[in-house]
Design goal:
- With 349 residues, the protein is of the alpha+beta class.
- Among the domains are: 74-196, RNA polymerase II/Efflux pump adaptor protein, barrel-sandwich hybrid domain (OB fold (Dihydrolipoamide Acetyltransferase, E2P)), CATH 2.40.50.100; 201-298, DNA polymerase, domain 1, CATH 1.10.150.390.
- It is 33% helix and 16% strand.
- It contains 11 helices and 12 strands.
- It has helices at 74-85, 157-164, 166-182, 190-200, 222-234, 249-254, 259-263, 268-278, 287-292, 303-307, 329-348, and strands at 11-12, 25-29, 35-40, 46-47, 62-63, 101-109, 112-118, 125-131, 143-144, 203-208, 219-221, 241-244.
- It has a 4-stranded antiparallel sheet with strand order 8-7-6-9, with no helix packed on it. A 3-stranded antiparallel sheet has the order 1-4-5, with no helix packed on it. A 3-stranded antiparallel sheet has the order 11-10-12.
- The chain is elongated and about 135 Å long.
- Mean pLDDT is 82; it is low at 345-349.
């Protein structure tokens, strides 16, 4: 390929058309002609060495041209923010390792290279199908950790959640969103994004109902899930188990327990229809539904005082006056004497 800027010719790697079983690679041989290392070359890589050149450790063998950088202003970054908040699967995502282990290269079948990650004890082997022309980040025999990308590309938050858990996924989302704003010098406190991410990960899918009242594969609020498990454990039962879900902000808003809040957001007809069919009851626990109904919001310094008020729907029952205790004859005579004595003293005065 001829470089338009320098006018120099460069060797560029191209995949052989119609050949799905071979991939270009660079072989490093020692003075005795033995192959010491193999480097797979991705498509469109620019070779910096020629056949027969002597190389030293650290020499650049090839360069991978990066795609033209997208607009780095806030408008160019907003689609990335929307992609993260809606947890959409990115285009050409990276493949991440599910376990800690050693990388082994497999054969190429139907244009896909098989890469195996074998655990150190040899009991677990994970297989990954990698497109033939992409750049592979790991070499054969290399040790990788769970969650490490095997090829170039953006990470899929759902894969991170399945492999590395909730905490890592939450940190990844917060940092990725902040990165877009920091490029423009926009300073946003992490707590605002953390509140949104917390709501995105508020749901759990039940995998084992145990002795609870849940249904298998039911999507349950995480706080209700914990309360039900605590109740079952206190009664000596078996708690339910579930896996955390990551929902986009639109789906998370429509999944709320309050149908009034959900109907005021999007898909009003569907939300109200489902609420009517299932006979839902809105207990007005959130801010939005209370504002819609014209009530005080359940927040603020006076919340506890307001919550402790009880409205009586019926007039209070009359409290009967206690009857006077019966007196013995001696006590009655003493009372009469005191009354007579007090009456005589009053007459003398």
């Amino acid at each position: 390929q001829l470089d338009e800027v320098t006018g120099l010719a460069q060797l560029v790697v191209t995949l052989p058309p119609g050949d799905e079983k071979h991939q270009p690679m660079i072989l490093i041989r020692d003075s005795a002609g033995r192959t010491r290392k193999k480097y797979l070359m991705p498509s469109r890589a620019h070779l910096m060495v020629a056949d027969g050149d002597e190389v030293m450790p650290g020499d650049v063998l090839a360069k991978i041209p990066r795609e033209t950088t997208k607009t780095k202003d806030i408008t160019g970054g907003l689609p990335r923010v929307v992609e993260l908040f809606e947890t959409r699967k990115p285009k050409d995502p990276a493949v991440i390792s599910e376990i800690d282990g050693i990388v082994r290269y497999g054969e190429i079948t139907k244009g896909l290279r098989r890469i195996y990650v074998e655990s150190e004890d040899g009991k677990t082997v994970k297989e990954y199908a990698i497109p033939r022309g992409v750049h592979i980040n790991v070499q054969e025999g290399e040790r990788v950790r769970a969650g490490e990308p095997l090829i170039d590309g953006p990470l899929n938050p759902h894969d991170l959640l399945a492999v590395l858990g909730e905490k890592f996924t939450q940190a990844y989302l917060v940092n990725s969103i902040q990165e877009v704003y920091r490029l423009q010098g926009v300073n946003i406190n992490d707590k605002h994004i953390e509140v949104i991410v917390r709501q995105m990960m508020r749901w759990v899918k039940v995998e084992d109902v145990g002795d609870t009242s849940f249904i298998l594969e039911e999507q349950v609020d995480k706080f209700r899930f914990r309360e039900e498990n605590e109740r079952v454990i206190k009664e000596g039962g078996r708690p339910a188990t579930g896996r955390p879900l990551l929902l986009g902000i639109t789906k998370a808003s429509l999944s709320t327990d309050s149908f009034i809040s959900a109907a005021s957001f999007q898909e009003t007809t569907r939300v109200l229809t489902e609420a009517a069919i299932s006979g839902k009851v809105d207990y007005l626990r959130g801010l939005k539904e209370n504002v819609i109904m014209g009530r005080l919001i359940p927040a603020g310094t006076g919340l506890e005082y307001y919550r402790n008020i009880r409205l009586l729907t019926q007039p209070p029952a009359e409290v009967p006056t206690p009857a006077e205790p019966e007196l013995t004859p001696e006590e009655a005579a003493a009372m009469d004497f005191l009354r007579a004595d007090s009456g005589g003293a009053t007459a003398e005065n």
